[in-house]
Design a protein that fits this description.
This is BAAT/acyl-CoA thioester hydrolase protein. The protein is mostly beta strands. It is built from three helices and 15 strands. The radius of gyration is 20 Å and the shape is globular.
């Protein structure tokens, strides 16, 4: 799924591959109008910009840490600005498009890479959770582990992981469909996020889109919403698949 329902992949991007977004250079869509015989009538190039041209982008590589810091544009806008830490997923690398777009709207964003990038470790199972102690501890312990070869370490030991059934996963064109695995994950106190430890004054906004067969976003959003309700937290949740909006004041 892309900008249009009839979108076709480019020759320079494999099926399911990431767009080139580090650094976040513009991406070109070629919109082509065809007649009933599939003969080209005309075409136009549509340029997608990820970042404001005056955005401040700073690459960080120090003390074993790698990332990119984005600051909003404009000399007069000294802040303070709301801050976001954008952590790339289990695909590895560093993906700056979300961070650059948020910074263009007035956020200070730190995009964090933690494996498969520059001199960082190559495998997720070699990542130490202490890596995420960036001025404040970023907790990533929760129902994010699919099986034993996708995990993160703490003080050299693998973190507890929920029980899953890897047989529920399968592949389409070489891409892993893990959504059924995550939908049937079994959680207990050793792997569940300690929701009640989150301060009651902390508010949340959850946004989920349609299921991409990798992560069941709407399913997970509903799960987190229920946990927040049980903990008495304020939140707003939007799942675009059903165009629902749920809020708790």
């Amino acid at each position: 799924m892309g900008l249009f329902m009839s979108i076709e992949p480019c020759d320079d991007f494999p099926c399911g591959g990431y767009l080139s977004c580090t650094p976040p250079v513009p991406f070109i869509y070629n919109l082509i109008l065809l007649d009933s015989c599939d003969c080209e009538i005309t075409r136009i190039a549509i340029k997608k910009h990820w970042m404001h041209p005056a955005l401040e982008r700073t690459e960080i590589e120090a003390d074993g840490f790698c990332g990119t810091l984005f600051k909003p544009p404009g000399e007069r806008r000294k802040g303070p600005f709301p801050a976001v830490i954008d952590i790339s997923g289990t695909g590895g690398g560093l993906h700056e498009h979300k961070g650059s777009m948020l910074a263009s709207e007035g956020f200070v964003v730190l995009c964090v890479a933690f494996f498969q990038y520059k001199n960082l470790v190559k495998k997720l199972s070699d990542v130490e959770i202490e890596y995420f102690e960036i001025n404040a501890v970023v907790s990533i312990n929760g129902p994010h582990v699919q099986n034993s070869f996708i995990n993160i370490k703490e003080y050299g030991e693998l973190l507890p992981q929920p029980r899953t059934d890897p047989k529920l996963g399968y592949f389409i064109n070489g891409l892993m469909v893990s959504s059924p695995v995550l939908r049937h994950i079994e959680l207990d106190e050793s792997v569940e996020i300690p929701w009640r430890r989150i301060p009651a004054s902390t508010s949340f906004r959850l946004v989920a889109s349609i299921d991409d067969l990798v992560a069941p976003s709407v399913f997970c959003c509903r799960y987190v919403s229920q946990r927040l309700i049980e903990g008495g937290h304020n939140f707003e949740a939007c799942w675009s698949a059903s165009r629902e909006m749920q809020g708790l004041g």
